[in-house]
Design goal:
heterodimer, A: alpha+beta, outer membrane lipoprotein receptor (LolB), chain A, three-stranded antiparallel sheet, 8 helices, 30% strand, B: 188 residues, mainly alpha, Rna Polymerase Sigma Factor, Chain: A, Arc Repressor Mutant, subunit A
Chain lengths: 311, 188
């Protein structure tokens, strides 16, 4: 028996499999995630909706970082790499103040799902543009001056949900912390994590002076999150959109592009596969207007009292 | 105060990673379908640990917690793969790390013998012999009583010995199989 078990011990693949390199790779991946993604903050069920919103923001930045990252790998032209790195830096500086991100997922040219995010300082708004979601509860969220507003499901107007801090006491996460994570990520902190993954990168100059960097990127670098839907494991694009078709296979090469404006700021991230197209368009980075609180938004307790009074 | 708590949290996580990352990466490597899947899974395990750091016990129990989490992550990964990937194509394109690491005929015999064990018995045997877990710890990882784990381990060792000796007597190996990379469905 001991001789047999000794043979089993000798067959342990630990010593043969380059464990140190693998541990280092895992360490890099974890460090990058810890440094950049709001998703790594403690979560609780009571704040799931807010977290989802925050994840969306983090994911928004994540796709920028991912695509930018893969654009600057060793297989790309050095000039392109430098330009993209510079764009990430400039975009981060602008995004620190304010910005708007318009996310679209289309299928056969038709809008499948969409979200528009605006932020200004520590205020932010998220609006779902997805067909069938307009005006419904959860279709819009707003944080202004430390107060969270949501859509009142009965009439579709705004209601004040109170301080986000009160929604999830003790979690250690606030919208401000999430926004800080997003801004860090926009700056390309994920560059270390993903390198050299863009296949056959090419550069194209447009008439308006902007430059498009494009090439194939593995789907797993774009749809990095996994989740569950109706009991099935799914891959999830940033903003919580389900990755359909080839995008669900992390190994599938998807066509990705990064458009950098003539001013050197990232304008658009695009990913296409079969009949699907996913894009994140940045507008007014650094120059988005301030967000206003909805006027006369009733508080949640007040709404409950009104409903109770109506019987 | 908040910053201090954040630093404490980070320090504790760093200590956890430093102490146990090699174990968890090794475990994921022999259980995952490919080296890259193993690294993804190991990273997910530590990200889960970061998110739930308050729930991670201290000391040796933390190691067991990480193994249990890794087991669930790998189970999720396998379920996902079954739906979304052409697994055989993937394995063909990216050989499993464990299979690629098989160095000699004795190791081939070992892996072949392991294939003759049921998935559960194989799991407890390798958790004991490759990962150094006690039956009680194995019970925690796989979600059974310690006495059940001990029973499975006893049975697995006996079965493994029998098959290994038979194979050695026959001088038979099967080099075509990727062996440990192809485990059956999880029942986590």
């Amino acid at each position: 028996m001991p001789e047999t078990i000794d043979a089993l011990h000798r067959a342990n693949p630990r010593a043969e499999m380059g464990l140190d390199d693998a541990v280092e790779a895992v360490s890099r991946a974890v460090r990058a995630q810890l440094g950049t993604h709001a998703a790594l903050q403690p979560r609780s069920r009571s704040r799931r909706r807010l977290v989802r919103l925050s994840l969306a923001l983090a994911g928004c930045a994540g796709v920028v970082a991912a695509v930018l990252s893969v654009s600057v790998g060793p297989s790309g032209a050095p000039d392109a790499a430098a330009a993209v790195k510079k764009a990430a830096t400039l975009s981060a500086a602008s995004a620190e103040r304010s910005g708007t991100a318009v996310v679209r997922l289309t299928h056969d040219g038709d809008l499948w799902a969409g979200t528009t995010i605006r932020w200004h300082g520590n205020d932010l708004s998220v609006a779902s543009d997805s067909p069938g979601r307009l005006g419904k509860a959860g279709s819009k969220l707003l944080v202004v001056g430390g107060t969270l507003y949501g859509i009142e499901p009965e009439h579709g107007g705004w209601m004040a949900l109170g301080s986000p801090k009160n929604i999830d006491p003790g979690s250690g996460t606030t919208p401000a912390e999430y926004l800080a994570a997003v801004r860090d990520d926009v700056g390309g902190a994920s560059l270390e994590r993903i390198t050299g993954a863009m296949l056959n990168p090419s550069t194209r100059r447009l008439a308006d002076g902007s430059t498009v960097y494009s090439g194939a990127v593995k789907a797993g670098l774009i749809a990095r999150e996994t989740g569950f839907k109706e009991g099935h494991v799914i891959r999830v694009l940033p903003f919580g959109f389900v990755a359909h078709g080839e995008a669900a296979n992390p190994a599938s090469p998807l066509e990705a592009s990064v458009t950098v404006g003539a001013d050197g700021i990232v304008r658009n991230i695009g990913v296409t596969w079969s009949s699907w197209a996913y894009s994140v368009a940045y507008e007014k980075l650094g120059s988005s207007p301030a967000l206003g609180a909805p006027a006369n938004a009733p508080s949640l307790p007040k709404l409950r009292r009104q409903r109770a009074a109506r019987g | 105060m908040k910053r201090s708590m954040s630093e404490d949290r980070r320090q504790r996580f760093d200590a956890l990673f430093t102490a146990y990352a090699p174990d968890i990466v090794a475990y994921c490597t022999w259980r995952a379908s490919s080296a890259s899947d193993a690294q993804d899974a190991a990273a997910d395990v530590f990200l889960a640990a970061w998110r739930r750091l308050d729930a991670v016990p201290d000391g040796e129990a933390a190691r067991v917690w990480l193994y249990a989490t890794a087991r669930r992550v790998l189970a999720n990964q396998r379920r996902s793969r079954r739906r979304h990937l052409a697994l055989q194509e993937r394995l063909a394109a990216e050989p499993a790390a464990a299979a690629a690491a098989v160095p000699d005929s004795e190791a081939m015999l070992v892996h072949e013998a392991l294939l003759h064990l049921g998935a559960r018995d194989r799991e407890v045997l390798l958790l004991a012999e490759w990962e150094g877990l006690t039956p009680a710890q194995i019970g925690t990882v796989v979600g059974c009583l310690a006495v059940t784990a001990r029973g499975r381990l006893h049975r697995a060792r006996r079965r493994f010995r029998s098959v290994f000796e038979d194979l050695r007597a026959e001088g038979r190996t099967s080099k075509e199989r990727p062996l440990l990379a192809k485990e059956g469905p999880e029942h986590a």
